Amino acid sequence: MATLTPMLQVPDIRATIAWYVSVGFTLIESAEEEGELIWALLGYGEGRVMFNCGGHASDAPRRDADLYLQVEDVDALFNALPRSVVVFESPHDTFYGMREFILRDNNGFWLTFGEPVRRH
């Protein structure tokens, strides 16, 4: 079995950790070099993402990577978000059968939270 854990390059690891923790991620591990935070591993449920120093924030409409999290109860999760979070798309049903919303993190990366549309 293999596990894929993306690593994104960001300019400020501490600010990135703070942003991700504010939307429900957990800091699992981090590393410092000469007193500066240079790497972090965060988790959301069973999912993992790593952040490494050296990247650049962007205001471009899209970055080279997006994160997709399959969750339960998209609407409740959306309603519990801090008001300071930048919402790119509010909860909506997609043509491919998912209910999703999209956030932009403090570095300009998209995070999509989705769950299968409930059929009545």
Verbal overview:
The chain has 120 residues and is mainly β. The chain has one domain: Roll (2,3-Dihydroxybiphenyl 1,2-Dioxygenase, domain 1). 13% of the residues lie in helices and 46% in strands. The chain has a four-stranded mixed sheet with strand order 1-4-3-2. It has a four-stranded mixed sheet with strand order 5-8-7-6. The longest helix has 10 residues. The chain is globular and about 55 Å long. InterPro entries: Glyas_Bleomycin-R_OHBP_Dase, Glyas_Fos-R_dOase_dom, VOC_core. Pfam families: Glyoxalase. This is VOC domain-containing protein.
- What class would the helix/strand composition place it in? mainly beta
Shape: globular
Mean pLDDT, as a whole number?
A: 93
Largest sheet: 4 strands, mixed
How far apart, in Å, are the first and last alpha carbons?
A: 35 Å
Q: Helix share of residues?
A: 10-25%
In total, how many domains does the architecture comprise? 1
Number of strands: 8
Number of helices: 2
The CATH topology annotation reads as: 2,3-Dihydroxybiphenyl 1,2-Dioxygenase, domain 1
Radius of gyration, in Å, reads: 15 Å
**Which class in CATH terms?**
Alpha Beta
Strand order of the largest sheet: 1-4-3-2
Q: What percent of residues are in strands? A: over 45%
**CATH-scheme architecture:** Roll
Q: Any idea what the CATH superfamily is called?
A: 2,3-Dihydroxybiphenyl 1,2-Dioxygenase, domain 1
Instruction: Say what oligomer this is.
Output: single chain
**Spans with pLDDT under 50 lasting ≥5 residues?**
none
Helix-strand topology string: EHEEEEHEEE
Organism: Noviluteimonas gilva
Pfam families: Glyoxalase
Domain VOC: 1-116
Protein name: VOC domain-containing protein
